[in-house]
Amino acid sequence: MKPMNEEHLAILRRHMVEVIAIYADLASEELGKAALDERVMAAMLRVPRHLFVPAQAAPFAYQDTPLPIGFDKTVSQPFMVALMTDLLAPQPHEAVLEIGTGLGYQTAILAELAGQVWSVEIIEEFASHAEALLQRLGLSNVGIRVGDGSRGWPDRAPFDKILVTAAAEEAPPALLEQLKPMGRMVLPVGTDEQLLTVIDKDSAGQFEARKLIPVRFSRLEAA
């Protein structure tokens, strides 16, 4: 059987976005709305997920499932990527900090929507791979460094939005500190039982957390 071409992959990507829309509708009671932001859905349609997974996993890239990327890590399922991005609501004028670059898929989605993305990855091989791929795709508004994500990126702080793609028992204090007043953080919180959580910081620096749906992420690693 011959390999899939770009036209085939584009059809599968459209199907992936249609499936995301169905899942969003099914989760409407928990999310408080029946559809995700159109800008997010358009970004999901543009970014070629098959490039952000190992070659052997590329045929499965547009199924709504996590996929292994090495080092016992996975790229999140497309619905979860879209949902977390929607909850974060990155805007074209904003600076976003991402914790957990992986191979760069979520980073690419954020780069399509935000003004600037700074991403921290603890695994050096992932960081270098993601950086090269994002540059090849022309996403020049991304900076990546290797380090302990729980410490954030103090030199680039403060941030309008922060997205954490690994679970912690509680929101890391350094990340809360690096979030601007009126900023927002989205992350999975918990150990055995994790909940997708949205944390908003008000103008006085006080925090309000909203817990949404059960999720399963790898643990946030410290260097």
Write structural notes for this entry:
- The chain is of the alpha/beta class and 223 residues long.
- The chain has one domain (6-215): Rossmann fold (3-Layer(aba) Sandwich).
- Helix content is 33%, strand content 26%.
- The protein has seven helices and nine strands, in the order αααββαβαβαββαβββ.
- Strand 4, helix 6 and strand 5 (142-146) form a beta-alpha-beta unit.
- The termini are far apart.
- The model has no long low-confidence stretch (mean pLDDT 94).
**Helicity, in percent?**
25-40%
| CATH class term | Alpha Beta
Uncertain segments are: none
Mean pLDDT: 94
Discrete helix count: 7
CATH topology: Rossmann fold
- β-strand number: 9
The termini sit apart by 45 Å
Helix/strand-derived class?
alpha/beta
The CATH architecture: 3-Layer(aba) Sandwich
Query: What does the overall shape look like?
Result: globular
Q: Compute the CA-based radius of gyration.
A: 16 Å
Topology readout:
Blueprint: H1 6-26, H2 28-31, H3 38-46, E1 67-70, E2 73-75, H4 78-88, E3 95-99, H5 105-113, E4 116-121, H6 124-136, E5 142-146, E6 159-164, H7 173-178, E7 179-189, E8 194-201, E9 207-215
Parallel strand pairs: 3-4, 3-6, 4-5, 6-7
Antiparallel strand pairs: 1-2, 7-8, 8-9
Helix pairs in contact: 1-3, 1-4, 3-5
